[in-house]
Specification:
The chain has 492 residues and is mainly α. It has one domain (28-477). The protein is 76% helix and 0% strand.
Length: 492
């Protein structure tokens, strides 16, 4: 079944929906200040959460950078491999967000309950499988990333420990996605505040042996991340039992599905697969493409690779908030589709693009004027700082377009069209980013700045394609709605 078929047909509500759900609350089409307030209400906690994650990523680079160039390069290779694995798990969050959002918009708490339970169950099983595979293939994966010698040894050590945190990380992803889909983005933000603070403290203490903790070097930094993921997962799970939690995703008293719905269900699993598989392929393709890019840069020496990690980690201050706005767009557009309010979906998307572009313009100014000082926060190596500063500057021209492209992709996922963003991402990544990066970085010897040029060119092509798809408006003519969920025995 094609991913976009989620919006190709009207889905009749289940018997449990009719009994348990209140009358559907159709979200009104709003404009002007009212719509802006609604978008910002959901978006700002997501943006803050993304900024917190960016802060942790920056802190991790700063910690490993102070352990030496080998540690910085090795952990960089390991994280590229880790993100390839993580791309498969991110689909759990995408599927849960969209299904819960559409069920919420349609006023169907039973379907929302099924989505969050199946998201956690299916995601946990997938995470366990990927943990085993990832540990077994850590050595070959590091070699695929171009690591050799001490860098390879460091990458394998860091990667193996990081893999042990996949299960709690997946639980965080699934529950957080469900909460955003139901309209609660503040709770995942608070969870992020706690876990990210713990990550920084634990990673620093275990890496350098401060505060009475054992000195474990690069492995300690990885264990700090795992401790934080466990805390975040436990916190979010506990929040599902609150009486203030939206009814569709609540556990315990007031849950629309009682204690049922946790066993993996083939019907719901197929729905997750239908909706999420294109997103998985898209993320996997991008992660693999990024791994190849890392290998190209590694061929230019550890200085360029280290500068690449600094530039892209610092760059997260620009694009991760835009990704946060994209996530909010997916939730709000999904709710609008569930409520059959197409005009609201368009209005949300338009305003979200304005927010993302505005943020990117601000950060472009920062990159253009403070690239060198920002790079110096990560390492004391002057050559690496200079290379990273050139990378920051090369990002500037394409940043507003990148932000608007993120939002358009999120809007298409909200309406159930996950295939088209997948196609455009794969095409622009492999046919534009890598060829341009290879020619500019190696043949023309522009280094990291040449590699970044590929991202700028691809962002223009990607934005044009996504804008055409969304503006075409085929999704308006579909009977949109979340797929029906199986009945639960014992539903309250």
């Amino acid at each position: 079944m094609a991913a976009s078929s989620l919006t190709d047909r009207a889905i009749a509500p289940t018997v449990e929906d009719a009994i348990d759900a209140p009358a559907p609350q159709v979200t009104p089409s709003v404009s002007g200040n009212a719509l802006r307030r609604d978008v910002i209400r959901l978006a700002w906690p997501v943006v803050v959460e993304q900024l917190l994650q960016t802060t942790v990523a920056i802190a991790d680079v700063a910690i490993t950078g102070r352990l030496g160039t080998i540690a910085l390069a090795g952990s960089g290779v390991a994280m590229q491999v880790f993100f390839v694995v993580l791309s498969g798990l991110m689909a759990v969050g995408i599927g849960t967000t969209v299904l819960v959002a559409q069920a919420t918009g349609a006023g169907s708490p039973v379907r929302a309950a099924s989505a969050v339970r199946q998201g956690v169950s299916i995601g946990t099983i997938l995470a366990i499988a990927l943990t085993v595979i990832g540990i077994a293939l850590a050595g070959p994966a590091a070699a695929l990333g171009g690591a050799t010698g001490e860098i390879a040894d460091t990458a394998v050590s860091f990667l193996v420990v990081s893999m042990l945190g996949l299960v709690p990380l997946t639980i965080q992803i699934a529950i957080g996605g469900a909460m955003r889909g139901a309209g609660d983005s503040r709770t995942p933000m608070v969870a992020g505040m706690y876990s990210n603070a713990i990550n920084i403290v634990a990673a620093w203490g275990l890496a350098f042996g401060t505060w009475g903790l054992p000195e474990m070097g690069i492995v300690g930094a990885a264990w700090g991340g795992n401790i934080a993921r466990i805390v975040g997962a436990v916190y979010l799970a506990a929040m599902l039992f609150r009486s203030s939690t939206p009814r569709g995703i609540r556990l315990g008293a007031g849950s629309p599905s009682g204690h049922a719905g946790w066993m993996p269900d083939i019907v719901v699993g197929r729905q997750f697969l239908t909706l999420s598989l294109p997103a998985v392929i898209e993320q996997l393709s991008f992660s693999l493409m990024f791994l190849v890019l890392g290998r190209i840069l590694l061929s230019l020496g550890p200085t360029v690779l280290g500068a690449q990690r600094i530039a892209f980690s610092g760059g997260s201050l620009a694009w991760l908030p835009s990704i946060g706005i994209m996530i909010a767009t997916t939730s709000l557009v999904g709710q609008a589709i569930g409520a059959r309010d197409h005009d609201r979906a368009v209005a949300v998307t338009r305003f979200a693009q304005q927010l993302a572009a505005g943020w990117m313009v601000v950060m472009s100014v920062v990159f253009a004027t403070l690239g060198g000082p920002v790079a110096a926060l990560f390492t004391t190596d002057e050559a690496t700082v200079a290379e990273a500063a050139r990378g920051f500057l090369a990002f500037v021209p394409g940043m507003p377009i990148i932000g608007m492209g993120f939002v358009l992709g999120g809007a298409l996922r909200g309406v159930g069209d996950t295939r088209f963003p997948m196609f455009t991402s794969i095409a622009t990544g492999w046919l534009i980013i890598l060829p341009v990066a290879w020619v500019c970085a190696t043949v023309l010897e522009w280094g990291l700045a040449g590699a970044v040029a590929g991202f700028g060119l691809s962002s223009v092509a990607n934005f044009a394609a996504l804008r055409w798809r969304f503006s075409k408006g085929d999704w308006r003519n579909r009977a949109a709605g979340a797929p029906a969920m199986p009945a639960f025995a014992g539903a309250e």
